[in-house]
Amino acid sequence: MNSSRRQFLTTSALASAAAVSTTPARSEETAKAGTLELKQGATILLQGDSITDAGRDKTIAEPNHTKALGNGYARMIAYHLLSKYPEKELKLYNRGISGNKVPDLDGRWEKDCLELKPDILSIMIGVNDYWHTVAFGSKYEGTVESYGTGFKALLDRTREALPDTRIVICEPFVVRAADGSTRPDWFPEFDQRREKAREAAQASGALYVEFQQMFDAAVAAGYPHKELAGDDIHPSPHGHALMASRWLGDTGLA
């Protein structure tokens, strides 16, 4: 194992440990960006596609249920928050659905978001908005512009219905090989879609979690990209652990 990879793995291990045991100091820049606070009895909703879904049991509607939280970063975040803040009596829901795009979220938003009245809403959406287009043999005719416009409209709708809800936008990502050979036909358009997600977050005053930068840094440090996500999209347990740690750190809840 080379030194850069060893250093990255050590840092990642420390970050993961911090995510389950301590609250790291917040930089002045992060504080200005606006980190989150947990109120008593807060409802936290994690929304998105298969990366959030992660095999959750959709027949279970109640919060904080292991099977209903899935097997990925959403459950790791929930476990951390429930163990660190037991006195807060938090309610955590995973409502990710595999294959979803922005229009799919919009179609189920009343039931799967607005009716839950989350105090904190985390959304990860965007991979399928490109992967499931006509360019890859599907019938969906979404474009960079329609993704950005639809995402912004969804956030505007949420702000109107839930003005006090804090929103976290999770950056869509592809875990790429260091030489950039992974899914070359996705770029530069996928980067343009990620920028639309960032713009939507900024327009709505949401926090933005940079997962692409995190995975790029892992691969640059020498970690095999296939060990972080075997198909470049769906993270391994280690990939999900890195996501949970980054989410908790960026929101100030680690």
Percentage of β-strand residues: 5-15%
The first-level CATH class is given as: Alpha Beta
Number of strands: 5
CATH superfamily: SGNH hydrolase
CATH architecture, by name, is 3-Layer(aba) Sandwich
> How many DSSP helices?
11
Structural class label: alpha/beta
Spatial extent as radius of gyration: 17 Å
How can the largest sheet be summarized?
Answer: 5 strands, parallel
CATH topology: Rossmann fold
Unreliable stretches (pLDDT < 50, length at least 5) are 3-32
The dominant shape is globular
Strand line-up in the sheet with most strands: 2-1-3-4-5
Strand/helix succession = HHEHHEHEHHEHEHHH
Helix content: 40-55%
Give the domain tally: 1
**Gap between N and C termini, in Å?**
29 Å
Calculate the mean pLDDT score and round it.
Answer: 90
Summarize the structure.
The protein is α/β, with parallel strands linked by helices. It has helices at residues 3-21, 28-33, 50-53, 73-84, 102-112, 127-131, 144-161, 189-204, 211-220, 225-228, 237-251, and strands at 43-48, 91-94, 120-124, 166-170, 207-209.
Description:
- The structure is a single chain.
- The protein is an alpha/beta fold.
- The protein is built from 11 helices and 5 strands.
- The chain has a 5-stranded parallel beta sheet with strand order 2-1-3-4-5, sandwiched between helices.
- Helix 1 (3-21) crosses helix 11 (237-251), helix 4 packs across helix 11 and helix 5 packs parallel to helix 7 (144-161).
